[in-house]
């Protein structure tokens, strides 16, 4: 059975420790009282008094320590702003859980990035599970947040894409044993709460209009407190909502199966961008030599069956200019080296897919693997 907010009922480690210490004291008191009973004179009186005092100490500890613990949990500390250095120092010592819920995080900006990623790596090596939830840069809420921060001259989608680019590179650099412990998702919902959790403590704040959330007061709370239960429930709700979140892996690339008639030619992972509802892929991974079609599962939050597409070379007369598509690739994956081969995925019916469209470029020799 669970409490509101998803916490399991049962004794906390602190409560178990209180009972263990209390039991140890009672055991010591029992030994003293038995020794007093078997001895005589001054030693008997001394052991009797000591044993009785230890019994009272054990009972008081078991009764009052949980009360002090509850009072500590209920205490909320207020900080004037988000202290990056203090949070990074706490990351180094984390060994159970690290969670971040934000639009984007300043911890991955250039001046903080190296120390932050070092701290995340240390937490992973300590056995911590690290989960990050950042806003989808292509969703309406990201654009709305940019408009709210217009006076601050903050491009929210650009900031998020930069965060995701650095997180993807960091994940690739991790040792294989650590990779499963780092999980990153993007969410499509109105941002309401900022959460930075390390083990059983967290900093929380709310998104002000026209201000960066890092520059407003932060509440430091215990995750076992009502405040902690509230933000825990909000994080879990978003994290587990299949239609509201997308894993970083599916945001970063899609699997395309090149198709020639009734035969599959090759399967490749390709970068992609979504611009005005149209999907574009970077096909530099393979060389085009004859007309082919592609079967792909688009990165929707509710996955559907793979669909068949024609690979169309975007033209200057298209609704989305080629230069604009190239800029989206640069923002998502970093500045290109001029070697991108950008094609647009145009849906085809299964019957049409066997006859490549006239505009389809010549497609593909299998990539080198």
Short description:
The protein has 369 residues and is of the alpha+beta class.
Write a structural description.
This protein has about 375 residues and is an alpha+beta fold. The chain has three domains: about 15-75; about 75-250, 2-Layer Sandwich (Endonuclease, Chain A), CATH 3.30.870; about 255-365, Pnp Oxidase, Chain A (Roll), CATH 2.30.110. It is built from ten helices and 17 strands. The chain has helices spanning about 15-40, 40-75, 85-95, 110-125, 140-150, 155-175, 225-240, 250, 320-335, 350-355, and strands spanning about 75-80, 95-100, 130-135, 180-185, 195-200, 200-205, 220, 245, 255-260, 265-270, 270-275, 280, 285-290, 295, 305-310, 340-350, 360-365. It has an eight-stranded mixed β-sheet with strand order 1-7-6-5-2-3-4-8, sandwiched between helices. A seven-stranded antiparallel β-sheet has the order 10-9-14-15-16-12-11. A two-stranded antiparallel sheet has the order 13-17. α3 (about 85-95) packs parallel to α4. The longest helix has about 35 residues, at about 40-75.
| Secondary-structure element order, N to C | HHEHEHEHHEEEEHEHEEEEEEEHEHE
Categorize the overall geometry.
elongated
Spatial sequence of strands, sheet with the most strands = 1-7-6-5-2-3-4-8
In the CATH classification, which architecture of the largest domain applies?
2-Layer Sandwich
Q: Low-confidence runs (pLDDT<50, min 5 residues)?
A: 1-10, 353-363, 365-369
The named CATH superfamily of the largest domain: Endonuclease Chain A
Give the helix tally.
Answer: 10
């Amino acid at each position: 059975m669970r409490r509101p907010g998803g916490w399991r009922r049962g004794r906390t480690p602190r409560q178990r420790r209180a009972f263990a210490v209390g039991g140890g004291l009672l055991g010591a008191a029992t030994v003293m009282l038995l020794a007093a009973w078997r001895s005589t004179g001054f030693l008997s009186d001394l052991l009797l008094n000591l044993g009785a005092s230890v019994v009272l100490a054990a009972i008081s500890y078991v009764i009052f320590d949980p009360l002090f613990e509850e009072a500590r949990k209920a205490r909320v500390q207020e900080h004037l702003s988000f202290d990056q250095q203090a949070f990074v120092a706490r990351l180094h010592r984390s060994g159970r859980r690290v969670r971040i819920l934000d639009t984007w995080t300043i911890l991955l900006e250039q001046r903080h990035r190296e120390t932050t990623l070092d701290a995340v790596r240390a937490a992973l090596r300590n056995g911590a599970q690290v989960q990050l939830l950042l806003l989808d840069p292509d969703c309406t809420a990201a654009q709305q947040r940019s408009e709210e921060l217009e006076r601050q001259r903050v491009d929210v989608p650009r900031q998020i894409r930069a965060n995701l680019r650095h997180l993807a590179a960091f994940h690739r650099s991790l040792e294989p044993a650590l990779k499963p412990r780092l999980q990153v998702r993007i969410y499509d919902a109105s941002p309401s709460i900022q959460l930075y959790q390390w083990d059983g403590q967290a900093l929380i704040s709310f998104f002000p209009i026209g201000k960066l959330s890092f520059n407003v007061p932060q509440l430091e709370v215990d995750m076992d407190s009502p405040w902690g239960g509230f933000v825990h429930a909000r994080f879990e709700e978003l994290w587990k909502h299949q239609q509201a979140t997308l894993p970083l892996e599916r945001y970063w690339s899609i699997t395309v199966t090149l198709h020639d008639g009734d035969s599959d030619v090759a399967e490749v992972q390709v970068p992609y961008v979504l611009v005005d509802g149209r999907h574009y892929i970077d096909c530099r991974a393979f060389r085009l030599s004859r007309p082919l079609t592609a079967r792909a599962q688009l990165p929707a939050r509710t996955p559907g069956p793979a669909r068949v597409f024609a690979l169309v070379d975007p033209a200057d007369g298209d609704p989305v200019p080629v230069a604009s598509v190239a800029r989206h690739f640069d923002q998502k994956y970093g500045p290109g080296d001029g070697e991108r081969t950008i094609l647009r995925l145009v849906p085809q019916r299964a019957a049409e897919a066997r006859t490549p469209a006239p505009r389809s470029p010549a497609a593909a020799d299998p990539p080198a693997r």
